[in-house]
Amino acid sequence: MTFNKALIAAGVASLLAASTAQADNLVIATVNNGDMIRMQGLTSDFTDKTGHTVEWVTLEENVLRQRVTTDITTKGGAFDIMTIGMYETPIWGKNGWLVPMDDLSEEYDVDDILPAMAGGLSYEGTLYAAPFYGESSMIMYRTDLMEAAGMEMPEAPTWTFIKDAAAAMTDRDNEINGVCLRGKAGWGEGGAFITAMSNSFGARWFDEGWNAQFDTEEWANTINFFKDMMDASGPSGYATNGFNENLSLFNQGKCGMWIDATVAASFVTNPKDSTVADSVGFALAPDNGLGKRSNWLWAWALGIPAGTQKEAAAKQFIEWATSTDYIELVAANEGWANVPPGARTSLYENPNYKDVPFAKMTLDSILSADPNDSTVKPSPYVGVQFAAIPEFAGIATEVSQEFSAAYAGQQTVAEALAKAQAITNDAMEAAGYK
After folding, report:
1. Coil, strand or helix at 57
2. Residue 55's CB: how many other CB atoms inside 10 A?
3. Superfamily of domain 24-135+298-349
């Protein structure tokens, strides 16, 4: 071996040794949704490329929110990466609790992130979390049951049509519920659904003086319509059903319609997951002719808690998991219908993705949700299915518990709304809004 070759070999060995010495084990908190489970199955690709290993803490949605909020507010340091959303990110970014994503690599192409997603995950123009997937909500329905009922789903239906179709498709003898919707307590579970639905009924959480609005006709109409429809055409125990419970029911063939996250489309159309994969159609979330549909806007995103000792490795993981290369990796392993949707503009320009049956409806739903103008009457907050203020999560969790109790028949709708009014006004007064 010549001196130069020996020197080069020594240099390479030194670099490899340094790389190995710097390899980190990242602890990542995430939600138990299908796309995140799929990501866990592909993490060996990240480890092979970087040397870093990953330890997953996978939690149910309500538990995840509680754990990561507690950890970041107490500076617990349990996680190097957190799965968070559009509600937490700007608030935590403002507080200095998250590492800014302002130095991602040129190859990552941050400008390719859909503007709606980048905007919702930024504070004062700085990105604080990268979207793993973005979503709105839409109607997923059984085309065979709709046809058997003698009805045809419009591309943009009303709530009246949904209620009528749900009644027509319900077949209790064969365990088919006309409609499956979230009733589970939790601000991001049933609370998110009913808030988005209430927008289309003309309701809002607060008036322009931050006064609670649950004592209005619009909220009474929303909750009564929901409960009447679900009691007549929904599954038993719907008051405790969230995203995963309804996904399971739909895939078992027990739902005529399901209105929920657009990201569910890949699972209900996948023959590996769904018994009804070959008979699923899609439509925009319903409205009431008031100019607002009942679809939300959300991103499950990856953020880094400030103070982590593994910031560089964490950014490497986030670039890997939210990149176009990751999309290609999922496509190669699972098919284009199963890639994480709603985060990147280039996905919707990709000819391989344009043939996916729900691609256009997903994008149309995302683009039709406006967090800066989500209510019929003026409101002082930003957000579609939430109000982007620090107090909202706590208030809305309590309010959603009262609603779920009304769905379960443990109290009347009027009692639930009166309690929601008192809970919200008391909390807002204590927080100094009034």
Report:
1. strand
2. 11
3. Periplasmic binding protein-like II (3.40.190.10)
Which ranges of 296-344 does DSSP label H, i.e. alpha helix? 311-321, 324-334
d(CA 126, CA 128): 6
| Residues 65, 185: Cα–Cα separation, whole Å | 13
Q: Domain spans of the chain?
A: 24-135+298-349, 138-296+385-430
Closest CA to 135 of 431, 366, 398: 366
CA 421 to CA 326: how far, in whole Å? 45
Residue 97 tokens read as 């609790």
Q: What is the pTM of this model?
A: 0.88
Under the banding of pLDDT at 50, 70 and 90, the label for residue 22 is: confident
- Asked if residue 367 lies in contact with residue 148, where contact means CB atoms within 8 angstroms, the answer is no
Give me the percent of the chain exceeding a pLDDT of 70: 95
Tell me if 221 sits within 8 A of 201, measured CB to CB. Answer: yes
Mean pLDDT of the chain: 94
Query: What residues pair up with 255 in beta bridges, in sequence order?
Result: 177
